[in-house]
Every structure is written in structure tokens, then in C-alpha cells.
Amino acid sequence: MSIISDSLKKIKPSPTIAVTQKARELKAAGKDVIGLGAGEPDFDTPDNIKQAAIKAINDGDTKYTAVDGTPALKKAIVDKFKNENNLEYTTDQVTVGAGGKHVIYNAMMATLNEGDEVIVPAPYWVSYPDMVLLAGGTPIILECNEKQGFKFFTIAQIDSLKDRVLTMNGVSKAYSMTGWRIGYAAGPKDIIKAIAKIQSQSTTNPSSISQAAAVEALSGTQDFIKERATSFQERRDFVVKALNEIDGIECLNPDGAFYVFPSCKGLMGKKDSSGNELKTDTDFVQSLLENSGIAVVQGSAFGLEGFFRISYATSMENLKKALEKISTFCKNLS
Q: For the segment 309-331, what is each residue's pLDDT rounded down to a tens digit?
């Protein structure tokens, strides 16, 4: 008799973590591997944010905080939403969690009843359907496509929908703070209150030090963002151009983040150097890793078969080397 819960049996391990782990194993075995799977900026956390954390430690800011975020951080979040997204909130409409995924998971737990259907646009982040399942809901996948540009829109900007929308963000990507684990959201007070109730019985407050650092991230200088965005744009332009020069691969030019989501449909049915036929995008990424040492993530992990995801949050040197290897791999398919 299994002691593992039935709800946990419904979900699968994170595909992105699995790819990263496989790449680590191959590196440990002495193979030359370039990892393009992890969604993590290669830049370090800016010094002003680090110094804010150090000051918080030295000032003894090491105790429990309010369950769902300090007043200072909530105010900084309210200001961020107003200044950058033209969204008006009050501090009692804001919640802070240990990362963006934590906030979304709390939201699912706070709002779903057994069997509730949840629309998940694809491509989605790999955890979304599993979060819905853990909360007792039923994920309904709505496939988008490259012709639509996989479009993103902040639906809270539609006035008639704002009172039904939870808008979330985090400091991980823009501020290179993935390890600090701070995510946040704003929305209807009853949902925010319910999320706080869940968090009070699970993690309690996010790290006090990380919250102090996040205040500086949102309220301090933003000068470094333009420089880093320019660097990411240069990498994006190179990667998109290089991919589109490979027969069998087509790649849209993304508007944000540091990922591209190219199609490998034109390579399906071909065979690699070992004679293995590429029937799915998973076959493609596994063969690419084993034969060329390039780690990417299959599109089916994000809900769309026939694509793969590349993170260009690495050096231009690595990207040039990786794209050359991807091109050679594809040319050698028969």
C-alpha cells in the first residue's frame, strides 16, 4: 500500500529541472555541455540590493514579519504597479510570497473547489497545470500558436475585469534575484485575505532579509535594467537570426523575457547519427543533448508539441558555440 497521496500521484516532476539535472550529470561525466534550459539571468544581483540586505541583517531585521509581506514592501509594490503598469491598488490588496510560483499556488488553493475548471493558455509555465491538479481543479489547456505571436496581455488593464483579476510578478528575473525567493500579487481583497490565511498555515512570511532587498529593488535605482535589457536584446537578435538560418527550424522574435520558442516541426521524421527517428520534440531535445551537448527544453513541457525553448540568459560566447552546434546537428540529420 502506497503512503503517497493520490493528489501527488497526479503530477509530474518539473521538466526544466530534469533537463538541468541531466546537463549537470553529463558535465560531471566530463562531457562538454552548454545548458540553455534554465530560466535564470546570468547577471548578479545589483550591489545596491545586496547592500540593502546586508543593512537589514546588521540592523537586526531578522524576525518574523507580517505573514504576507512587510508594509514597506507592500507600498513599494503598490507604487510599482501604478508607475509601470497603470494599475491602482492599496496595500491591503497586495500579497507577498516566496517566489512567483508560491503566489500562484496559494491563489489556486484559495479559489478552487474540487473539479473546478481552470483555463491555462499554452505555452504555459510547466508548473501551472500541476498546481491546478494539486488544488483539486481540472486544467483546460487553450493552445495558442506562433501566428498569434503567443500574445501576452495584462488583463487587469481592462477595467471591467480588474475586480476579478489577480496580477502577479516577482523580483527574480528583472533584478537577478532568483535565489532570494520573492514574488507578489495584487487583486481583490477577499482573495488576498484568503491567500494570507493559507500562507499563515504553511510557510508564514517570506524571508525578512529578502523582503528588505526587494524594497530596494523596486524603489531604488533602475539604471542597470536598461543596460542589461540591451545586452539581452543583442543576444535575442543573434539567437533568432541564427535559428532562422537553420533548415527545419522557424523562430519568432519574442517581445520580452529571455527565451525563444522555435518550432522544430520541420525536423520531425528525420533520423540522427545513431539512426533514431525524431518523432516528437522530446526526441529532438534528447538527441541534441546526447549528440551535441546542448541542453534545451521540449515545447511539449510547456503545452505545445513541436517546439523547444532556449534561454539566452548566458554569455554571447556560449550562445555562438551552442547555435553552431545546433546548426551542425540539424544539418547532419537524414
A: 999 999 999 999 999 999 999 99
